[in-house]
Specification:
Length: about 375
């Protein structure tokens, strides 16, 4: 059998805007939709996680980046720029290298996870820490893209949303239809916008490549549930947050670029956008790693935290099919796993080179 070909080739007929573009790909997408027994038992629903940490640069951004960099290459761009809380920069840097372009990234001062920083540096991006937050970085990146010959590859670039909608296609392809509820973390709000577009296109006749109308592959669309971190919850509060704060640095965003589109996804789908505290995020992070075997970064755990919060509020219908996107891999920002529930640090137990001592330390004696 042929290996997975990346989202542009796998879904070419549903990506008419990329027709004729040279395909710059690291074979992203095709990520597993993992059934979660413990979460299902806890909530009374059939819960799956879409494990986007298994993309080439270990986050969902690769789906959008293959599209944005391919479109930029078609347009003759030689340099790209982005603002990022980390994952976008890692992805942009990798795909720019693959395309033979240069990449500049603007990241917030001191608030990006080590794994993401290493990736951007390893792939040769020019990285600048801006003395401000993500929203400031995006403002500056947009200005530069207007005035200089650099292509902006943040999710305000329409190709990004096109690429990212393929995750919804994969969910329907795997389940045979749309789930009842789709849960995801919300930061700059591009991803909730992209999933909603993907679900809508799969549930209605949709123009594809060459204007050919594609038949629907789903009979329905899910309710979209988005979760922001409580310290960075502008959509929930109804106004921008000047100094967003959360342990989930990926979604530490006070003024999302796709704010209106996120509200449209919520309202058209009969869904909701709510917030979860840092404590709820870290609790969900532990729950997912210790009961399901799935390791994610804190920002990704916001979707699980949201599901648990809604379950506790009695809002998860019994027997519903629920898909939670977990957006980035745990190795991006591994320090959180080394915290104990009471906030201390986990220390490895030291033992001598001796089977009896090891057995005793493991509780295997007697
Ligand atoms: N989860 C992770 C791991 C992310 O990195 C991001 C966004 C989100 C969720 C939120 O997605 O912005 O589409 O609502 N990260 C961006 C970045 C901002 O720069 O890497 P969104």
């Amino acid at each position: 059998a042929q290996q997975w070909r990346g989202v542009i080739r796998e879904y070419a007929e549903r990506l008419p805007s990329l027709e004729g573009a040279p395909v710059v790909t690291l074979l992203e997408g095709g990520t597993p939709l993992i059934p979660c027994e413990h979460l299902s038992e806890l909530t009374g629903a059939s819960v799956y996680v879409k494990y986007e940490g298994l993309n080439p640069t270990a986050s969902f951004k690769d789906r959008g980046m293959t599209a944005a960099i391919s479109a930029a290459k078609r347009a003759g761009a030689r340099a790209v720029i982005c603002a990022s809380t980390g994952n976008t920069s890692a992805s942009a840097a990798a795909y720019a290298v693959k395309a033979g372009m240069t990449c500049a990234v603007l990241v917030p001062d001191g608030k990006i996870a080590m794994g993401k920083l290493s990736q951007a540096i390893a792939h040769g991006a020019t990285l600048l820490q801006v003395e401000g937050n993500f929203d400031d970085c995006l403002t500056v990146a947009r200005k530069l893209a207007e005035s200089y010959p650099v292509e902006l590859v943040n999710s305000v670039n329409p190709a990004r949303i096109e690429g990212q909608k393929t995750a919804a296609f994969e969910v329907v392809d795997a389940l045979g239809d749309a789930p009842d509820i789709h849960v995801l973390p919300v930061g700059n709000a591009g991803n909730i916008t992209a999933y909603w577009r993907g679900y809508c296109e799969y549930a209605s006749p949709t123009p594809g490549v060459g204007g050919e109308v594609l038949a629907p592959l789903a009979t329905r669309r899910p309710a979209m549930w988005g979760f922001q971190a409580a310290g960075a919850a502008p959509i929930v509060l109804g106004h921008p947050v000047d100094e967003p704060e959360t342990v989930a640095t990926a979604i530490r965003i006070g003024n999302p670029a796709s704010w209106r589109q996120a509200e449209a996804a919520r309202d058209e789908s009969g869904g909701l956008i709510d917030s979860v505290t840092d404590e709820e995020i870290l609790e969900a992070h532990r729950l997912l790693s210790s009961t399901e075997g799935v390791f994610v970064e804190p920002g990704s755990a916001a979707s699980i935290a949201g599901l648990v919060k809604m379950h506790r509020a009695g809002r998860v219908p019994s027997g519903a099919t629920v898909v939670c996107t977990v957006t980035g891999h745990g190795l991006k920002d591994p320090q959180w796993a080394l915290r104990t529930a009471d906030g201390g640090d986990v220390e490895p137990v030291r033992v001598p080179v001796d089977a009896y001592s090891v057995a005793a330390a493991l509780g295997l004696d007697g």
